[in-house]
């Protein structure tokens, strides 16, 4: 059970306040203030964990976000000289802030050095404000930046996770890969990226809940957990396959909507091909994690891990089976 300390609760409230200010503002300066409030609220949350590497990760995160904020401020005087470059500079700074490729170099090391709850916040909540600002910058001038960042993010996320054995780094590269799909969804409509982002948040939360409940930080710990009860195996299997976008699980439907928009709008087939190829790569290392707990047993181990809240874990995992209920819900409505 996650219990927030008073200072964590305070900074969590100001973090949400900063996101709200950045999303709802009509002024670039107020938007920048909201991003800064969000940043200054998240740094104490990062350093409040007992992990000895959290201070290092917080410093890395602060320096990168400070560079992104400085780039946003630099776009203001630039707008008086080169008006066309302003949107490009702002978009590049926001890509750096969310950790999308090719400016992703800081994201996996920061995620690796923090605890699971902070990592989940960094992979989901901290991306809301920059992505919402990105959606206002979609134009013919910036379309090449979106295409480049989306393709590179999807390929980097897929290829980078293949040789990883640390679960936090695997989830970080997974987040970079999904950022590629999100950037493509942004170019189509606001409702599409909202649906994709909410689905990704729900699925990632279910995966992180299982890994955090059992303190799994390495692939070897999944192998050790293979002698645990069947609910853990089933829940881990379903959530990872859903994160990979395998039908009929929850993660498949937002990807199907993005693919449908590509086909209907007649967008670049190269762009869509890169996204689909990267989806196969991510599904490979998700399957490697999931099948290891199913197929590889360790009966000679003397130590067994204690399953935390098995009923809650099973309930969380079956969120990914919710699309199977959609036909029943539609039948009840109509």
From TrEMBL:
The chain crosses the membrane at residues 7-23, 61-82, 88-107, 144-163, 170-187, 193-211, 232-250, 270-291, 312-333. Keywords: Electron transport, Membrane, Mitochondrion, Mitochondrion inner membrane, NAD, Respiratory chain, Translocase, Transmembrane, Transmembrane helix, Transport, Ubiquinone. InterPro entries: Complex_I_Subunit_2, NADH_UbQ_OxRdtase_chain2, ND/Mrp_TM. GO terms for biological process: mitochondrial electron transport, NADH to ubiquinone. It catalyses: a ubiquinone + NADH + 5 H(+)(in) = a ubiquinol + NAD(+) + 4 H(+)(out). It is found in: Mitochondrion inner membrane. It is a multi-pass membrane protein. One of its GO terms (molecular function) is NADH dehydrogenase (ubiquinone) activity. One of its GO terms (cellular component) is mitochondrial inner membrane. Its EC number is 7.1.1.2. It comes from the Eukaryota. Residues 25-77, 85-282 form the NADH:quinone oxidoreductase/Mrp antiporter transmembrane domain. Core subunit of the mitochondrial membrane respiratory chain NADH dehydrogenase (Complex I) that is believed to belong to the minimal assembly required for catalysis. Complex I functions in the transfer of electrons from NADH to the respiratory chain. The immediate electron acceptor for the enzyme is believed to be ubiquinone. Core subunit of the mitochondrial membrane respiratory chain NADH dehydrogenase (Complex I) which catalyzes electron transfer from NADH through the respiratory chain, using ubiquinone as an electron acceptor. Essential for the catalytic activity and assembly of complex I. Belongs to the complex I subunit 2 family. This is NADH-ubiquinone oxidoreductase chain 2. It comes from Typhlopatsa pauliani. The gene is nad2.
């Amino acid at each position: 059970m996650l219990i927030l300390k008073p200072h964590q609760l305070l900074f969590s409230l100001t973090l949400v306040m900063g996101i709200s200010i950045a999303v709802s503002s009509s002024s670039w300066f107020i938007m920048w203030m909201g991003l800064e409030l969000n940043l200054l609220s998240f740094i104490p949350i990062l350093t409040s964990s007992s992990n000895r590497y959290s201070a290092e990760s917080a410093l890395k995160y602060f320096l990168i976000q400070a560079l992104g904020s400085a780039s946003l401020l630099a776009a203001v005087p630039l707008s008086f000289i080169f008006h066309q470059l302003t949107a490009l500079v702002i978009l590049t700074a926001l890509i750096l802030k969310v950790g999308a490729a090719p400016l992703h170099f800081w994201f996996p090391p920061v995620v690796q050095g923090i605890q699971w709850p902070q990592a989940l916040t960094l992979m989901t909540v901290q991306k809301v404000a920059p992505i919402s600002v990105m959606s206002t910058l979609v134009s013919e001038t910036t379309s090449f930046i979106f295409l480049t960042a989306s393709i590179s993010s999807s390929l980097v996320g897929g290829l980078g996770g293949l040789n990883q054995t640390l679960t936090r780094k695997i989830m970080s590269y997974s987040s970079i890969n999904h950022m590629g799909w999100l950037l493509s969804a942004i170019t189509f409509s606001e409702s599409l990226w909202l649906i994709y982002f909410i689905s990704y948040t729900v699925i990632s939360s279910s995966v992180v809940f299982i890994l955090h409940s059992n303190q799994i930080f390495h692939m070897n710990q999944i192998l050790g957990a293979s002698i645990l009860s069947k609910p853990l195996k089933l829940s881990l299997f379903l959530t990872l396959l859903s994160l990979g976008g395998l039908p009929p699980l929850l993660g498949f439907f937002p990807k199907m909507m993005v693919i449908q928009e590509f086909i209907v709008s007649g967008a670049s087939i190269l762009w869509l091909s890169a996204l689909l190829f990267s989806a196969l790569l991510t599904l490979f290392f998700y399957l490697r994690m999931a099948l290891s707990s199913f197929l590889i047993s360790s009966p000679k181990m003397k130590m067994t891990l204690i399953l935390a809240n098995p009923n809650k874990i099973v309930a969380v995992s079956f969120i990914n089976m919710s699309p199977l209920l959609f036909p029943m819900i539609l039948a009840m409505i109509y």
